Request: fold
Amino acid sequence: MTVSFSGTPLQQRLARRFFYGWAIVVVAMLGIFASGPAQSHTFSVFVGPIAAELGLSQTDMALAYGLATMAAAFCLPLMGRFLDRVGARRMLALVAALLGTACASFGAVAGIAWLAIGFAVLRFLGQGSLMLGSSNMVSQWFQQRRGFALGLMALGFGISMAVHPTVSQALIEWVGWREAWLWLGVSTWLLLLPTVMFLAVSKPEDMGLRPDGIERAPKPSSKNIAPPPADNSNDFTLAEAVRTPAFYIVAAGLFTLSMLVTTLHFFQVSIFADAGLGAATATTCFTISAVTMAAAMPLVGRLLDRMRTEYMFAGGLLVLATALSLASAINGLAAALVYAVVFGLANAVSMTYYTFMWPRYFGRSHLGSIQGVGQTIGVVGASLGPLPLGLSKDLYESYDPLLLALAVIPVTVAVMAAVWLRAPRRPAGSGHD
Reply:
């Protein structure tokens, strides 16, 4: 049977060779990678130089970062609704252009107020909107193989962990931290804008396809005949989702993962310095974590597709608790290497769960709105994470006691997920907004 594809000539040629969803995974992977300048593992390299030049303490830096990240978080529901309205392709093109501009401008910050504003814009566009649009696009293209596809997409984060801290450190040493941000902005434009413009497609129905490539729409006899719709009988609206227990358990878990992974990223260089290990060792361990993360994410994605989600979710939270405990015990290179591997696993589960959980429990028809609220919850967690450790360092000259105390949180949420998290069902006969 002849199949008709819509889209650009390049997209049509690719779609005739393989399921186009895999091209979408590559586009989204690059989107996640390009969010690197707005991620905590990149900021970690800049904390010392910025604080030294602007005369700021660790608490000042953590407070500016936290308040800015929280401010950015509350804009994300609006971006989620915008995403549902215009589609991922248009949203990502706009965000890519703005993120490059924000990076290029960040080097001009002077004082804590402008620093906080710069943090807020970068976090909203990169850690928030760019990741939201990328994961939404992959979730639209895949259902049965969604975990595996999102695991592959999240490799972009692992590659960013390996590349951005090392490149940023080299740029700081070569041209200074201010000009380094200009080059990070230019690289964002060059990498992301052409890719989104030429290859991104918001959902498979836009090309006459269906999720997973399992079923293609037959060649229509009329241009007015659309492909048969996918089953969305258990797809929740945002209003329906927030009335389910599953929403709050998932939100608590993702809040915890985002908060504590961000904390470890933001202070890794400083934690290593307390253990007598230099910035070069800290950035090398970022690379080790990134390699571990990259190796683990496809496996985590496959397991999510095959195993009970609540047990996988709980297990990931326990991995994070282990990473926090190991961070408090770093006393030399060997301990640092063990921590780096476990932290890589924690990043693998965090990134994959962050994108997998919302469509897994609430479907894809209103995914932008639901993910927008979910992303807000996660980013609020990220905003709160660094502050307690900053205070601990300034008041008690050590991160270790609080790292151990924080490990209790993911253990508690893991128990909640294993015992109470179940997939909700929409009431019979309920309609969509």
Notes: The CA atoms of residues 327 and 339 lie 6 Å apart. The chain is about 75% helix and 0% strand. The two ends are 36 Å apart (CA to CA). Residues 112-141 form the longest helix (30 residues).
